[in-house]
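Project standup — Tuesday

K.O.: blocked on the structure for the chain from last sprint. Re-posting the sequence here as requested.
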Amino acid sequence: MKNFIFYTILICLLTACTITPNIQLKFLDEHVLIDSIHFKNTLIGGLSGVDYAKGNYYFVVDDARDPRFLIANIFIKEDTISLISFKDVIHLKDTTASFYQKNSLDLESIFVDESTNEIHFTSEGSIKRGRKPTVFKTDFNGNFITDFQLPSSFKYIEKIPHNAVFEASTASMHKKGFWVAMEGVLESDGVKPTFKKTSSPIRITYFDRTTETATKQFAYELEPISKPAKGDINLNGVTAMLAYKENHFFIIERTYQNGYGSHGNTIRIFEASVNDKTTNIIDVESLKEIDYIPLQKRLLLDFTDIKGRLTEKIIDNIEGITFGPELSNGNRSLLLVSDDNFQSYGKQLNQFILLELTRN
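H.V.: unblocked you, prediction finished:
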């Protein structure tokens, strides 16, 4: 409770000088693919992360039996998504290395490094099976290149939450490294979000591209759950992030609650930032034991406010965000994508959402 009060006071004092209130996100369009589309003998689904590079969109597929990524063109006309055309599917298979075989690949995010022609992935592994999470890169053919050394906060696999580890990543604006965010809270750091304000920090880690090691790490506080419980599953965590200027990010928090059927997700996008007062926690084993200053944050978009414009008023399991091409008015477009879990848990959508980044 001590460190929770400490950072809450500091957020109030520092927000005005760190958050940029002129940034806004405007909903433009939604596009939903029909179910059970096959492309090159694979099922389109499980789209758990997205990046835009070289004029194409790259989607990572969360399928541990056949880890892969897709390349697609998305045509935007008059601020709407007119067509999604898949171009290729690349399977991650071991050749000379055995990295894929030794590690459970539960792929959750993807970004392309155009300067090196490499693709970066995060994987949650399988904590229940003793398989650690990983951060690694491949070439454009899916051949393994190398993985990145994880910071000490992840050395005890038994303290890492299953299926809530490395969910999000984004390249840094200066291209010298990249950021990776957890979905959930380490047992040693705090408690899972609930229906009241709690100390629920996740860790966001910066990896240096040259040394291939983590050099800094910061805490980001998750929001409480806003809808009443109807079932026994009530979770909130980070599912995607995107750097839009140096040390400034769009961060997606996804609440899932069973009992609501296809309306069980609450999706909120926050602006969050690191400044010179944010505590570097890379050498801290437990956030419960220290006072710290987390990233500053403010709400940009709550999809509850625009659900009437969505298919059957459903906002699905959004797990990817990326910039896209400029719109006709010169503003940047953003694309969000949902992971339909291959319909394993009932009706879900392959949902693509187009946003516009505006400034007052």
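K.O.: great, moving the ticket to review. The radius of gyration is 19 Å. DSSP finds two helices and 22 strands in the chain.
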